[in-house]
Amino acid sequence: MKTQRKKWTAAAMAAAMAVMSLTACGTKATSENLFRDMNKRASEVDSLRMNMKLDMNIEAAGESVSMGMDFAMEATSDPEMSSAKGVGSVGWGGIDTSTEIETYSEKQGDEYIVYTKSENGWTVQKEDSAGMSTDIGVVSEDIEKFASQFELDKDLVQVNGEDCFQLTGTITGEFLSEFMGEDMLSSFAGLGLDEDGLADISMPCTIDVYKESILPARMTFDMGEALLPILEAAGLDAAECTVEMTFLDYDAVGEIVIPKEALEAAGS
User: Fold this and answer.
1) Residues 159-179, buried b or exposed e (16+ Cβ, 10 A)?
2) DSSP letters for 18-31
């Protein structure tokens, strides 16, 4: 009887140690496993709702110029569609102007149809698959290669009322350009900065990850120092530029409906 009891005790201890080992491995967060798991879970997302903000200040001819963008964005993977609504603003010499922005994109066969609302009404453009994509692409498939360049903060932060891990490090502009569509990239056109230009720079980045879902909660890019060489070449003196993307929810977007007026402009 004693021998049998010893066997049961040994088995129970072994099982307990195995459980503790598995639990420890499952709960210990590192930049490497957070990036890996975030990449995997993001690839399974069917839709997302997010907010994207850009704040930029430069010095030109002794005067301060500010630029801003604030977009509410939605995207679905099936059908492959996206929408963005918001405001673009410019301030110079004490005069502030703003423009409302509304755009929709959908994939039709091998083409992407882009509907954009301006002061003159709706315009429609067609782009081939090499030019753009409405794929929700929460994170780049290559994001894991940046894990070694990030450190995990010991304290959790709050985003949208939820606990989040916070990672700080450096990332390339190529990663950022994947989130910025043609509309946002065009705001840098006067500075000679496009997708190719972004690919050549690196910048500080903070990535907050929802603790429960291990999905991106917020990404903040500090582009100021990276833009300095380009701005100086354009005759500008200094820059502060921040891009912030906050992921509000996942798999909660219903049908994205393109306005009737936009479809009429396309002759649909």
Assistant:
1) beeeebbbbbbebbbbbbbbb
2) HHHHHHHHHH---H
Alpha helices in the chain (DSSP H): 2-27, 31-42, 173-177, 182-185, 195-199, 224-233, 260-265
225-243 in b/e burial notation, b at 16+ Cβ within 10 A? ebbbebbeeeebeebebeb
pTM above 0.70, yes or no: yes
User: 117 and 258 in contact (C-beta within 8 Å)?
Assistant: no
**Among 138, 163, 165, 157, CA closest to 41:** 138
Report d(CA 233, CA 4) in Å as an integer.
Answer: 82
Tell me if 46 sits within 8 A of 76, measured CB to CB: yes
pLDDT by residue, tens only, the chain of 268 residues: 444 333 333 433 343 333 333 333 444 789 999 988 988 888 889 999 999 999 989 887 778 889 899 999 999 988 999 999 999 899 987 888 999 989 999 998 888 899 999 878 899 988 775 444 555 555 655 667 778 889 999 999 999 999 999 999 987 766 665 555 554 455 554 555 555 666 667 889 999 999 999 999 999 989 888 777 777 777 777 778 898 999 999 999 999 999 999 999 877 5
